[in-house]
Fold this sequence. Notes:
This protein has helices at residues 3-28, 33-57. The chain is an all-alpha fold.
Amino acid sequence: MPPEYYKLLEEIQANDFVLVELNLYLDTHPNDYSAIQQFNEVAKKSMELKIHFEEKFGPLMHFGKSFSNYPWDWKDSPWPWQV
């Protein structure tokens, strides 16, 4: 796989880690407007990164959370969780 594959995947994972942490924080601080803004910004960035990754390298998630190209490209490896 090209270096961009790993770079994008790592950036997606980093953004999603921030989202998990912010989610946990917001569970106990639901009125923190700044944290909510940060959560929404990072969520938007995460979605954009995932769209870009999937356009270039194929689906990230299964069960209808990612689209497939033609022909069905789930058979292509490596799958993101194998990297």
